[in-house]
């Protein structure tokens, strides 16, 4: 077991006064998701002017959970958002791995106080809509909705954004935080097709009293042949969020609005422990996503345009780090853009400090799926034995302090 170390003190960013504003620089963020809003909040905290644009006509509630670790919470604490995030979350007290058929636990480890003491922040489960609302409340103003960016025209001293509605805008810097199928990415680098994992997932929420043993759930994995399920509480423990992964080369629709049914999800796990099948069968709305990522990009930036979050490094969800990495990106980018540096230099420094880390996590997320979906037998037994070293194996992810990593 790893040796515990004292938690690092939290840093809090002080909002700059008007006199400290960075030369009137105006920044456009394309995408009002977790990464885009966190970037906008971090940039404004450092005195920069920010406009946020999103193609959605309204920001609707998405029935899915997000896990936040110490590395992401360090950034949110520094932005003064930690209390609001904690208040909307469920603190995850341990991690458990269960056998797919018997439901028995073959590995567990404490989180809670142990995790916070070692990694300097909590491990939380939060409903994506609740997290998004915390960010919207902290953003001083409203994102401009119904503004789908279709082109960028970059010159030596500014960038013009062209929207599908015929409108336009002008900025000194553009940040593409518009997800896996980013429109901004095609301005930055040669477009490549997303990589399909030949896997999809069912996602949904179930009232805790309709999940067998739900009141004891923490970060809970059920591992079995060719599929696995992850579940954890959100909204103070009143709901259990589940993500159930299945192989399916024919389901290629990657969309937040794609729907399935509780019966279909439960049937996909026929023969599994009743803890799984009952939970799936009791879900209300069930979404279904095909899982894609992209090969790591060689370049994230031009002179005045850069990428963030899934637009830069879309990753499969098997490491639980998508939102955390977007939040880290936001902190690094805001720090460099607030310095007295040429824009192109600031963007290059941001790219250099983020690329190696996000690439490593991307590749790890890919390999985790196969590890989680082994049939019973020697390979699964070897994996289970390796889990004893899990805190040390993932320590480099969770102990990371993006502020300390900046040069």
From TrEMBL:
UniProt keyword GTP-binding present: no
Coiled-coil blocks: none
Swiss-Prot/TrEMBL keywords: FAD, Flavoprotein, Monooxygenase, Oxidoreductase
Cofactor(s) it depends on: FAD
Source organism of this protein record: Winogradskya consettensis
Name of the protein described by the UniProt record: Salicylate hydroxylase
Organism phylogeny: Bacteria, Bacillati, Actinomycetota, Actinomycetes, Micromonosporales
One Pfam family matching this protein: FAD_binding_3
InterPro entries xrefs: FAD-bd (IPR002938), FAD-dep_Monooxygenase_BioMet (IPR050493), FAD/NAD-bd_sf (IPR036188)
């Amino acid at each position: 077991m790893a040796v515990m170390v004292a938690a690092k003190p939290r840093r809090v960013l002080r909002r700059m006064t008007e006199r400290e504003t960075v030369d009137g620089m105006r920044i456009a963020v394309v995408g009002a998701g977790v990464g885009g809003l966190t970037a906008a909040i971090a940039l404004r905290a450092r005195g920069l002017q920010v406009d946020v644009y999103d193609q959605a006509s309204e920001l609707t509630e998405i029935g899915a959970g997000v896990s936040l670790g110490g590395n992401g919470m360090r950034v949110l604490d520094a932005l003064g958002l930690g209390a609001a995030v904690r208040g909307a979350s469920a603190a995850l007290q341990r991690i458990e791995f269960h056998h797919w058929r018997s439901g028995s636990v073959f590995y567990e480890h404490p989180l809670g106080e142990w995790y916070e003491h070692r990694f300097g922040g909590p491990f939380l489960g939060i409903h994506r809509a609740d997290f998004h609302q915390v960010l919207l409340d902290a953003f001083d103003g409203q994102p401009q909705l119904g503004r789908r960016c279709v082109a960028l025209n970059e010159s030596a001293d500014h960038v013009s954004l062209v929207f599908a509605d015929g409108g336009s805008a002008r900025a000194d810097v553009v940040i593409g935080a518009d997800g896996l199928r980013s429109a901004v990415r095609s301005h930055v680098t040669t477009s490549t097709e997303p990589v399909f994992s030949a896997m999809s997932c069912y996602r949904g929420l179930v009232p805790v009293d309709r999940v067998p043993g739900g009141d004891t759930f923490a970060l809970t994995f059920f591992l079995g042949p060719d599929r696995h399920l992850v579940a954890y509480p959100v909204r103070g423990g009143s709901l259990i969020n589940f993500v159930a992964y299945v192989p399916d080369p024919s389901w290629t629709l990657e969309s937040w609005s794609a729907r399935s049914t509780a019966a279909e999800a439960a049937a996909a796990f026929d023969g599994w422990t009743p803890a799984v099948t009952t939970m799936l069968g009791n879900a209300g709305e069930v979404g279904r996503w095909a899982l894609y990522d992209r090969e790591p990009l060689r370049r994230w930036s031009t002179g005045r345009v850069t990428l963030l979050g899934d637009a830069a490094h879309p990753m499969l969800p098997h490491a639980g780090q998508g939102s955390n990495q977007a939040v880290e990106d936001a902190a690094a980018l805001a720090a460099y853009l607030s310095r007295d540096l040429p824009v192109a230099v600031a963007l290059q420094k941001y790219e250099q400090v983020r690329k190696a880390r996000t690439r490593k996590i991307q590749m790890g997320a890919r390999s985790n799926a196969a590890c989680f979906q082994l049939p019973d037998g020697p390979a699964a037994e070897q994996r289970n034995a390796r889990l004893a070293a899990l805190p040390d194996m993932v320590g480099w992810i969770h102990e990371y302090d993006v502020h300390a990593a900046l040069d």
